[in-house]
Amino acid sequence: QVRLVESGGGLVQAGGSLRLSCAASGGTFSSYAMGWFRQAPGKERELVAAISRGGRTVYADSVKGRFTISRDNAKFMMYLQMNNLTPEDTAIYYCAARPSSSVVEVTTAAYNYWGQGIQVTVSS
Fold first, then answer.
1. Which residue from 23, 21, 41, 42 is spatially nearest to 32, judged by alpha carbons?
2. Is 73 helix (H, G, I), strand (E, B) or coil?
3. Strands (DSSP E) along the chain, which ranges?
4. For residue 19, what are the β-bridge partners?
5. 3-23 per-position pLDDT tens digit
6. Of all helices (H) and strands (E), which one includes residue 83?
7. Residue 112: exposed, middle, or buried by beta-carbon count in 10 A (0-12, 13-18, 19+)?
8. Given this model, what pLDDT does residue 57 score?
């Protein structure tokens, strides 16, 4: 069983930065496709960024150039560096994992495991 725990969220002013972390336990992290998703009130959960086990990345258009996804397989960790945040980035952010995948997974249906989510609030 895979367990995912997010950390690093909080309240920040527009233009500020946050770094989210996702700690994974169970299984073979280096074989997982990983992703960050977010869900704002009244909206569907959407992809923010995803990374394959080989390090290939995909970003939502809305975060390109501002967010960076990365992973450290030795530490069983994934990160999301978020810069130049705007109020539109306010949402609950989720970490997700799909074991034994060699590609970048971009849909919610592709992921088997999810963290509990963490709030990110950007004030104007």
1. 23
2. helix
3. 3-7, 10-13, 18-25, 33-39, 46-51, 57-59, 67-72, 77-82, 91-98, 113-114, 118-123
4. 81
5. 999 999 999 999 999 999 999
6. none
7. middle
8. 98
pLDDT score of 26 more than 90: no
Question: Tell me, what amino acid is at 47?
Answer: L
111-121 pLDDT per residue, tens = 999 999 999 99
Reported as a single tens digit per residue, the pLDDT across 54-86 is 999 999 999 999 999 999 999 999 999 999 999
| 73-to-24, 36, 58, 99 alpha-carbon distances in Å | 10, 16, 18, 13
